[in-house]
Design brief:
Blueprint lengths: L8 H8 L2 E6 L23 E2 L2 H12 L18 E7 L2 E8 L4 E6 L2 E7 L4 H11 L4 H5 L5
Antiparallel strand pairs: 1-2, 1-3, 3-4, 4-5, 5-6
Helix pairs in contact: 1-2, 2-3
């Protein structure tokens, strides 16, 4: 599965977002990622601002084709554990991330606009998320197979 953006504007809006926040989610199988709006997923932390240097790397990773894997679909049902919220002028983007399946979904408002399997970018993405949530035991225990 390759990252798919239905319009050329989504990557630009990701790059141009002025602010980024992150929140930890309570994984649930009751809500299907991509079929419900991002705020439907229960949280297990308050939203915290992402330091600009980390946000810049996350934006770059999200829009890079090298972060995503092409090929067959995965036989995994994603349960996102992290939500990134990007905002700014004309920007309302959320990214739901499932590290177990290594799949993410990108939303503009409540509409799913892209995403994919991020196997090639998983190690870097996890490293950055650990910088955002350094004291979270669940995030610390996550491992990405090489």
């Amino acid at each position: 599965m390759q990252a798919v953006f239905p319009s050329d504007g989504t990557p630009a809006r990701i790059r141009e977002s002025a602010q980024m926040e992150a929140v930890l989610l309570e994984p649930t199988l009751e809500i299907r990622m991509g079929e419900a709006p991002p705020d439907a997923f229960p949280t297990r932390s308050a939203a915290i601002p992402v330091e600009e240097s980390v946000a810049r790397e996350l934006r770059s990773l999200l829009v890079s084709a090298r972060s995503y894997e092409t090929g067959a679909a995965k036989g995994c049902r994603p349960t996102p554990g992290v939500r990134l919220m990007l905002s700014g002028e004309d920007v309302d983007i959320s990214v739901l991330i499932c590290f177990e399946c290594r799949i993410l979904t990108i939303f503009e408002g409540d509409r799913s606009v892209g995403g994919g399997s991020f196997d090639p970018g998983a190690s870097r993405l996890l490293h950055l998320i650990r910088q955002v949530f350094p004291d979270d035991s669940v995030i610390r225990q996550l491992e990405v197979p090489s």
